[in-house]
Specification:
InterPro entries: Ribosomal_uL4, Ribosomal_uL4-like, Ribosomal_uL4_dom_sf. It comes from Auxenochlorella protothecoides (Green microalga). Belongs to the universal ribosomal protein uL4 family. The protein is α/β, with parallel strands linked by helices. The protein has 3 domains: 50 residues, no CATH class; 159 residues, Ribosomal protein L4/L1 (Ribosomal Protein L4, Chain: A); 48 residues, no CATH class. Helix content is 29%, strand content 15%. It is built from 9 helices and 10 strands. The strands form 4 sheets. A 4-stranded parallel β-sheet has the order 7-10-8-9. The protein has a two-stranded antiparallel ribbon with strand order 1-2. Strand 8, helix 7 and strand 9 form a beta-alpha-beta unit. Helix 3 crosses helix 4 and helix 6 packs across helix 7. The longest helix is centred in the middle third of the chain and has 15 residues.
């Protein structure tokens, strides 16, 4: 052992403090001459402080426990009529993840959803699967070239692919409670970008993209210039077909909000009934039904 203090003797039974004995000197000379210490500077053996004392000095305080979830403060969201007038506010208060873990939780949920969308059908042919290649291209010796036994080597044009992709299952899992918590955290964090409106189905009774865009622009949302997410309680065919022709506009049902559309949107338009459903589903009055991991395809009516 190395340290600072009085010299100590080394014996087969352990280290004993005191004056250096002849046996300790012999063992120290042995270490100096051994292959492990050859070429290194060997310091004399000295007494070390007791281990318990060093542990008491370096004792650290216990880490603060991280809460799994907590109720977020109520976020007021402006309620607007389809004529652009304000008619009050409506609160959004959901049970969200702890700030220490929320970012990683939402990111993991997004990765899970995106990875589960992969078909995993990419496939290439190896040199043994490519048609042909049974003939040796040239003799083994005498040509000056590297020896070659097949015309379907990965080094040759028309040959197989080395270490190419093969069909595989990319599906990964995530706990149900984590999925709920991640989606609720993303919804709560998007509250500043939300605006609450009345029934979209009543505002757009017929299939007309121009009418839907005009209604959204009247409340200060411009789907032709920014990415917009429309969350409705019960989407109708007229709303779904009217929004389908706008590239930056996505329509989600309240019970099946897509995490990618939610994080990708610049502005979020929520029906009043849909916001009540979100508060009931992810707030203190937790619903019994589990929301879908991923919603319907954008612009598709339920």
């Amino acid at each position: 052992m190395w340290g600072r203090g009085k010299p100590m003797a080394v014996s087969q039974g352990g280290v004993t403090s005191g004056q250096t004995s002849g046996q300790g000197t012999e063992e120290m000379d042995h270490f100096e001459q051994s292959a492990a210490f050859r070429g290194t500077r060997v310091q004399p053996f000295v007494a070390c402080a007791p281990l318990t004392r060093s542990l008491n000095i370096s004792r650290r305080a216990a880490p603060t426990p991280i809460r799994a979830s907590l109720l977020a403060p109520a976020a007021p969201i402006t309620v607007r009529g389809w004529d652009g007038s304000e008619s009050g506010t409506q609160n959004l208060s959901l049970i969200v993840a702890d700030p220490e873990t929320s970012k990683g939780l939402v990111h993991r949920y997004l990765i899970t959803v995106r990875q589960n969308m992969r078909a995993g059908t990419a496939s290439t042919l190896t040199r043994g699967e490519v048609r042909g290649g049974g003939r040796k291209p040239y003799k083994q010796k005498g040509t000056g070239n590297a020896r070659r036994g097949s015309t379907r080597s990965p080094l040759i044009v028309g040959g197989g692919v080395a270490f190419g992709p093969k069909p595989r299952d990319w599906t990964i899992g995530m706990n149900k409670k984590e999925r709920r918590l991640a989606l609720a955290t993303a919804l709560q964090s998007a509250a500043p970008d939300m605006v609450v409106v009345g029934s979209v189905a009543e505002a757009v009774p017929e299939v007309k993209t121009k009418n839907l865009v005009a209604k959204l622009e009247s409340i200060g949302v411009f789907p032709m210039e920014e990415k917009v997410l429309l969350i409705v309680a019960e989407p109708t065919e007229a709303v779904a077909l009217s929004a389908r022709n706008v590239e930056n506009l996505s329509v989600n049902r309240a019970e099946a909000v897509r995490i990618y559309d939610l994080l990708n949107a610049d502005r979020i338009v929520v029906e009043s009934r849909a916001l009540d459903f979100l508060n009931a589903q992810f707030g203190l009055d937790l619903g019994e039904e589990e929301p879908e991991v991923e919603g319907e395809l954008s612009h598709t009516a339920a």
